[in-house]
Amino acid sequence: MTSFLANNLQTENVHRIPVFFQLSKSYVPRFYGPRRIAKLILLSLLLIISCFIISSVSMLFMVYSLPRAPVVHLNSLLVSNFHVLDSRLEANWVANFTIKNPSHRSVFDFKEMKGIVSYKDRIIAENSIEPIYLGMNDQTTMTVNISTTGLKGNQYKLKDRVMEEFRKHKENGVVSFGVGISSIASHTNKV
User: What is the DSSP-derived secondary structure letter of residue 152?
Assistant: First the structure.
């Protein structure tokens, strides 16, 4: 009877053994020792650092290759013959500008240029300027004459309240104007 029980127990034990204990040694995972873990950490750090360096170099290349906007600097401004008449303003503005192309990769072609004088965001006078071309790292200086003197039909119409403001400011000794350049510009990348 004991042998019957022993045979029965052995059969039951065989069926209760989980499957993973019956696998051969080749499927058993290896032990990851301290040296192997250190190598994996070092490899991960090298991968992260190389991704950071590659992305930094890519960003610098993209930023360097983008066209940089030209820089316009007002060197001097002279206002002469400033008169506020009943219905119009007479004045001469002579502005000296420097336009610089800071880009090492682009050239700019300025077309349809105008010198503009404004008062409180309203254009009160303008004058056409000769087109210019700026090469890479190039700059040019230009003098722009803008005048309302002698312009009867072509002068911008100013409202009576604006003319009154001119008179008040002139009596106080300070009149603020905006002076600038308007242009249609195109750029070309040169590699």
Answer: S
Residue count (the chain): 191
* 92 close to 81: Cβ distance less than 8 angstroms: yes
Residue 111 contacts residue 80 (beta carbons within 8 Å): no
Write the pLDDT tens digit of every residue in 50-86. 999 999 998 887 777 677 788 888 899 898 887 777 6
pTM reported for the whole predicted model: 0.59
R_g over Cα of the chain: 40
Residue 73 three-state SS: strand
Cβ proximity of 161 and 87 under 8 Å:
no
| Short-list 115, 101, 114, 119, CA closest to 186 | 101
Contact 101, 70 (CB under 8 A): yes
- What's the mean pLDDT when you consider all of the chain? 77
